[in-house]
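COMPLEX REQUEST
Ligand: magnesium ion
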Amino acid sequence: MKKRMIILGSTGSIGKSTIEVADGLRDEWEVVGLAAGSSAVDLAAQADKLRPGFLAIADEGAATELERALNYAPTVFSGEDALVALVNAADCECVVSAVVGTGGLKATLRAVELGRRVALANKEALVIAGSLVMPLAARTGATVIPVDSEHSAVFQALQAGRTEDVRRIHLTASGGPFRTWSFDAMESATVEDALRHPTWNMGPKITIDSATMMNKALEIVEAKWLFGLGADQIDVVIHPESIVHSVVEFRDGSMIAQMGTPDMRTPIQYALTYPARRTCPVSRLDLPSLGQLNFEPPDPERFPAIELGHAVARRGGTAGAVLNAANETAVELFRAAAIGFLDIARHVERALDEHDFVAAPGLSDLLEADRWARGEVARCTAC
Ligand code: MG
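STATUS: Structure written out below.
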């Protein structure tokens, strides 16, 4: 019998890559559920091809459009709790959580509660609620396998040793489009400039997060929860070629790196096939033609997000929820040309400074911190 997967966020960048991976693994895996936010036509096209029994669309208004566009009659959930309903209804061996932003949190928590393997691309689930997700996974036996390329690299490198023997990890960052820009030039950078990522082809939100390096801040917090590390054990290094996806440094000085072409199909497939590996149609690295690989420290003045990430990882509690939500809102404001590029980190820092910190939050505290941070950043556009 084939193993069954559901894909939350199937019409996004990671979701589409997951469908390609699933196609390559079709002798072993079948897709039994797909979920999207509002892209009804794209979702219908995917569903008509894969014929899963269950679909979910978060946007209530898009549900009619979805059902009209379908050429078969699956069970369709819609509205705010549609993704959770899908996770409840579709029995499966793996939930691929690839929703962008806060929208995937409840469904991811539910998948963990059900003890599923969770292939986690939705880093926000851990940034906001790592303090709930990881203890819950320990209780239910759910396996959380990172799809984020850096964390997949760490997860793979950790197969070479014991977690208690890790000295620290080195998360690599491409440096984004502004790696060599001056502070003054970054101050007046446009949305177009920020969307020009040198190595990875990703959705717009994460591409801007790469430009500010807020993506790395989120990844520091994500790594803390995934691997149970202290903030001071998580280092960030700029590596413009995006070939080394991250490095684990063990106590004996050995550093184990995972390398490959920058292609999300590799970490997605590994999350599905772990601990086995299968052939994957990604282009291969040719070491002699690479010539050299470069590493440099991030500049804290131009990329203050890194320090924010470390501070949030040290602090825990509701800080991750505020970091994520303040950043999402600030990125929206930047995309609407309402604030400047370097204002994104300023808004996030201010929200972190001013929020009512809760040290041991429940889900409602985390959602409240999220809601507050969004309102605070929106209110203070001209602060
Ligand atoms: Mg990443």
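REMARKS: The mean pLDDT is 96. The longest helix spans residues 123-140.
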